User: Which sequence fits this backbone?
């Protein structure tokens, strides 16, 4: 009897341990993940976009990383402190971090990287206030700012501040086209680049001497390019693809949901803060009249877009700041479908109906390459605006360059557009609304919106170290902009990650896959 | 000797043709609004004015058109096909990297189409009014009329949803190599549907052509003489008729090589096949001028080479034909 | 003779049916193919979408009825352009011979060597995809075949006695070329022109499919192209438009074959 009980207890104990160890991370395995934008360079110090930031965040380490609650966590910097006057950020670096070629990561590299980013990164507001970086010793870097810069804490995250080895990139060759951006890329992150077939696949392998012990769990990450997200669903179902981030083909999410082996989550995009909008050329008649812009807003049924076109998987964007951000305020001018009001506004603005029922003919452009997002919305504009007598001609961009040129030369009526905020309004939101950022380039203030009060607010909010005060400033900004309506926000980008059940600890921090995948591990089933 | 001279003259013409193609394409592409730096700006999520100017200078885009053309041709003469702005890799290596995939696809389809097409055509010609013959005529018109991307898509729909026994996308499933045997089988597995789509169109044409050609030759004096001489029917059929019927087929196959490449663009796009066709399509979209020019050159070259081979084969097969 | 071939007559009937649907259909069935009338990806026999709806909720049947105009217009126009250019060049080369012929033939060879689809893609991209640019692009890359054929015919007919007779009585060159030789060269040219329409339709479909068609005109190729990435969830959105293209090209090919048999009884096709 006693022996039986003992046996039973042992069995239960073993079973318990077995279950417990089924949750224990396992070392090893290859994670095959998909990307839709092909990568051409890995140096996210001088480029942005998911194609560069996702692999870049695995190869390069940054001073801090963040969890899913927007809290910063130590990474290359063990600790940091902001001076009381908020003009100096001191980083204390780990002493044991080394680059893939064995050389130690020092404050010299940090200083070099920060200045390189400031001078070369497309998000020029991100590190503009950095005056210089002092390096009193090899593991201390002090960032000196011209004015307080609360966005800095997020600008130091993995997608935005890769620490580059000065001894490789500081050789005098122009950094944007440096050969080591795509070959023999050396960082200090958890993975090394071992193979790069452009447009096809990228192979990353664990760096054995990574400074965080026992991490990463994965042996290898393979990033495969699927220009066609239809294919990625097939591959996910076949089990050949294990993780597909930035999936926005919402019409097909049902398919994935029905599959018992696949898991869907919309977490991991908090800091991305993507919103799509209808851009008006504010300096061209009749879009210079706010009544006309508002008429568009009342004629476009965003609920229909969310419910029918996005099958309820997205959210209406009420304003310039994503609802997941701490600075978001719902207290704004709201617009919902009201065809009568739209027609009244158009009449008031002098756009009467002609004999054929048409008040206005407009061309609508869109950002190519994102068919599921941009193109479908541009095509929706046609039947939607027809109802109020506006005839829309969709201008298909032959390629990105053609669309970019139209944006740069302001040769457009209206256009679909979208942008990411990347962690802080200063980084990704300011560029669209500051009158000082009306430039002949894409992803700037292409609407040509000018409001001095808005400029004031944005600049002040960018410098305000007090969170509560900042929130108030951004609140007023959102109120004004939703009344002025230089562009009309449609939906928050419905990004989802689809992954196989075999994947544990999927990357769902605020940066998602643009963050080092240290804790991701694979089980057999 | 005459053959060598003939070849040399042809090669010379060929070279001139290729250069003309390059010049034309170069000039045309420069007419485009927007330039690759804008595309790169999109890739990188935005760009400041200074960076743009720097990059344009680096890529030589700020020089006058003719100067750029001169530079390009000069480099080209020394075997340097330029650098892809988009991939940051030499165009030649990009093309060579993708060339095997396209050649595999196109040649497989071609061989399949020729072999089955001629077989069917020969069979049909034995009984010119028989059922098989009628069937072949019908099939050939159908095969020729169906857009190649439509056939491709129907196959994908069939094999992705209804009969999931063949892969519908890409060239390989495994991301990591499993040894050359497994890899080859994997590729072969993926090759079936795209090659089939491409082959269908040409199969139709070749079977019809073979039948017509065979009938033509079978009715000729040459064959009648052979029959009159009392030769075995079989021998007459194969040694005499077929041999001669094959000539126009070779010509057509060669001339159609260009079309095969066009078909490759579409099939590779539909099936996500990582070859030159998809690269071409992507390069057009991205204004990747160097790659585009390199591809235009390469396809023209392949077509010219195919034409020359056809001419040579023709000449060898029938020495009575003089070079025109 | 044409009427004797049931297949060719069948082709003609089919073409007429397609023309009726495409030209008369829109007058009778008033709808906007771009309107969203059903839930996205509705299968056939759904409410509001008898043949199903695409990923935007647009009705496939309406698209089929309205899409023919663009496809057929482009096909016919592009074929016309390529035939006109081809005949002009081929006639001049064949008639004058010598250096003129040599130069024109090199020029033709140049266009033949150009990868036609790729080049058409480049042209359409450069000048923005609209119906006009597509028509011109296709016409510009498709004429060499006709040119070669015309030249061969002119070379052959030039030798005939009645041409010598015209020359003897001092007829003007223009008259000889266009009023004497060309009418005799017509039979194979007509066949070629008919087939050129089929090729042009396929070409337009390919360009639209690749995304280089005019997005504001509904065409069958456009329908396929825009639904391509959802084809596994909406086979109807690509199958039916493709079927229409197939039937059109089939009809034209059958007619071409019929004409060939009728007009060239002694020649076998060497396509």
Assistant:
């Amino acid at each position: 009897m006693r022996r039986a009980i003992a046996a039973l207890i042992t069995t239960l104990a073993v079973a318990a341990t077995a279950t417990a160890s089924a949750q224990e991370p396992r070392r090893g395995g290859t994670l095959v993940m998909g990307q839709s934008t092909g990568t051409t360079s890995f140096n996210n110090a001088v480029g942005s976009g998911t194609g560069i930031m996702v692999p870049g965040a695995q190869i390069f380490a940054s001073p801090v990383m963040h969890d899913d609650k927007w809290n910063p966590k130590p990474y290359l910097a063990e600790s940091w402190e902001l001076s009381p006057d908020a003009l100096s950020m001191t980083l204390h670096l780990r002493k044991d971090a080394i680059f893939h070629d064995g050389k130690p990561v020092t404050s010299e590299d940090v200083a070099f990287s920060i200045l390189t980013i400031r001078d070369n990164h497309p998000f020029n507001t991100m590190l503009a206030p950095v005056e210089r970086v002092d390096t009193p010793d090899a593991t201390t870097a002090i960032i000196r700012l011209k004015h307080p810069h609360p966005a800095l804490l997020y600008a130091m995250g993995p997608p935005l501040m890769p620490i580059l080895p000065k001894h490789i990139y500081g050789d005098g060759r122009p950094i944007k086209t440096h050969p080591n951006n795509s070959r023999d890329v050396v960082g200090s992150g958890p993975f090394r680049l071992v193979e790069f077939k452009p447009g096809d696949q990228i192979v990353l392998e664990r760096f054995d001497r990574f400074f965080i012990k026992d991490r990463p769990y994965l042996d290898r990450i393979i990033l495969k390019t699927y220009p066609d997200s239809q294919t990625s669903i097939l591959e996910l179902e076949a089990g050949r693809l294990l993780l597909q981030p930035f999936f926005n083909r919402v019409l097909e999410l049902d398919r994935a949901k029905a599959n018992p082996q696949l898991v869907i989550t919309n977490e991991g995009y908090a800091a991305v803060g993507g919103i799509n909008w209808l851009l008006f050329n504010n300096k061209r008649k009749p879009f210079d009249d706010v009544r006309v812009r508002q008429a568009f807003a009342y004629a476009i049924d965003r609920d229909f877009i969310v419910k029918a076109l996005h099958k309820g998987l997205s959210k209406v964007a009420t304003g310039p700041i994503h609802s997941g951000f701490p600075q978001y305020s719902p207290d704004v001018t709201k617009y919902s479908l009201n065809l009568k009001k739209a027609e009244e506004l158009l009449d008031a603005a002098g756009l009467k109906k002609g004999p054929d029922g048409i008040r206005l003919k407009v061309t609508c452009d869109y950002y190519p390459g994102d068919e599921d997002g941009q193109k479908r919305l541009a095509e929706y504009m046609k039947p939607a605006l027809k109802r109020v007598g506006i005839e829309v001609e969709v201008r298909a961009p032959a390629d990105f360059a053609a669309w970019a040129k139209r944006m740069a030369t302001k040769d457009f009526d209206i256009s679909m557009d979208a942008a990411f905020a990347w962690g802080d309004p200063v980084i990704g939101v300011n560029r669209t609304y500051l009158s000082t950022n009306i430039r002949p380039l894409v992803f700037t203030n292409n609407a040509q919106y000018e409001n001095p009060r808005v400029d004031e607010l944005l600049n002040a909010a960018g410098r305000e170290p007090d969170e509560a005060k900042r929130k108030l400033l951004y609140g007023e900004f959102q109120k004004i902009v939703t009344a002025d309506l230089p562009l009309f926000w449609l939906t928050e980008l419905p990004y989802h990650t689809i992954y196989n059940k075999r994947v544990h600890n999927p990357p769902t921090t605020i940066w998602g896959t643009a963050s080092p995948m240290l804790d991701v591990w694979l089980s057999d089933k | 000797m005459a053959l060598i001279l003939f070849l040399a003259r042809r090669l010379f013409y060929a070279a001139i043709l290729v250069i003309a193609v390059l010049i034309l394409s170069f000039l045309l592409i420069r007419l485009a609004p927007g330039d690759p730096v804008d595309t790169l700006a999109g890739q990188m999520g935005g760009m400041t004015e200074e960076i743009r100017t720097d990059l344009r200078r680096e890529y030589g885009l700020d020089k006058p058109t003719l100067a750029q053309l001169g530079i390009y041709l000069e480099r080209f003469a020394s075997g340097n096909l330029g650098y892809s702005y988009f991939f940051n890799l030499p165009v030649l290596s990009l093309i060579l990297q993708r060339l095997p995939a396209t050649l595999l696809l196109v040649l497989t389809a071609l061989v399949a189409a020729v072999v089955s097409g001629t077989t069917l055509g020969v069979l049909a010609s034995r009984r010119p009014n028989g059922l098989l013959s009628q069937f072949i005529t019908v099939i050939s018109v159908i095969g020729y009329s169906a857009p190649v991307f439509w056939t491709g898509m129907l196959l994908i729909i069939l094999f992705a949803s209804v009969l999931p026994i063949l892969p519908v996308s890409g060239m390989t499933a495994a991301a990591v190599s499993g040894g050359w045997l497994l890899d080859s089988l994997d590729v072969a597995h993926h090759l079936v549907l795209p090659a089939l789509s491409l082959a269908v169109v040409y199969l139709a044409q070749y079977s019809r052509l073979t039948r017509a050609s065979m009938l033509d030759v079978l009715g000729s004096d040459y064959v009648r003489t052979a029959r009159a001489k009392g030769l075995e029917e079989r021998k007459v059929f194969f040694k005499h008729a077929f041999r001669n019927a094959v000539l126009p087929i070779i010509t057509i196959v060669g001339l159609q090589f260009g079309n095969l490449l066009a078909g490759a663009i579409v099939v590779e796009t539909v099936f996500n096949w990582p070859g030159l066709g998809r690269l071409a399509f992507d390069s057009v979209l991205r204004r990747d001028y160097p790659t585009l020019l390199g591809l235009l050159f390469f396809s023209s070259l392949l077509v010219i080479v195919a034409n020359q081979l056809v001419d040579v084969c023709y000449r060898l097969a029938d020495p009575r034909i003089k070079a025109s | 003779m044409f009427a004797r071939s049931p297949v060719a007559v069948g082709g003609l009937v089919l073409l007429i049916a397609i023309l009726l649907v495409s030209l008369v259909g829109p007058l009778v069935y008033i709808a906007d193919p771009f309107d969203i009338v059903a839930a996205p990806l509705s299968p056939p026999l759904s409410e509001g979408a008898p043949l199903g709806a695409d990923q935007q909720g647009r009705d496939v049947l309406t698209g089929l009825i309205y899409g023919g105009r663009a496809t057929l217009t482009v096909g016919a126009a592009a074929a016309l352009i390529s035939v006109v250019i081809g005949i002009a060049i081929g006639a001049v080369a064949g008639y004058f011979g010598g250096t003129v012929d040599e130069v024109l033939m090199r020029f033709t060879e140049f266009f033949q060597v150009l990868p036609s689809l790729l080049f058409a893609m480049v042209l359409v991209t450069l000048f923005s995809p609209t119906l006009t640019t597509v028509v011109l692009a296709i016409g510009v890359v498709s004429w060499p075949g006709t040119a070669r054929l015309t030249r061969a015919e002119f070379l052959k007919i030039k030798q005939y006695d009645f041409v010598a007779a015209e020359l003897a009585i001092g007829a003007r060159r223009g008259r000889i070329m266009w009023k004497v030789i060309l009418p005799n060269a017509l039979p194979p040219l007509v066949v070629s022109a008919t087939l050129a329409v089929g090729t042009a339709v396929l070409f337009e479909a390919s360009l639209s499919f690749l995304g280089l068609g005019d997005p504001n005109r509904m065409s069958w190729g456009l329908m396929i192209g825009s639904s391509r990435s959802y084809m596994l969830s909406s086979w109807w959105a690509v199958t039916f438009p493709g079927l229409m293209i197939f039937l059109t090209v089939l009809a034209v090919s059958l007619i071409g074959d019929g004409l060939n048999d009728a007009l060239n009884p002694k020649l076998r096709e060497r396509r």
In short: Chain B is about 75% helix and 0% strand. The mean pLDDT of chain B is 77. The beta strands of chain B are 83-84, 89-90.
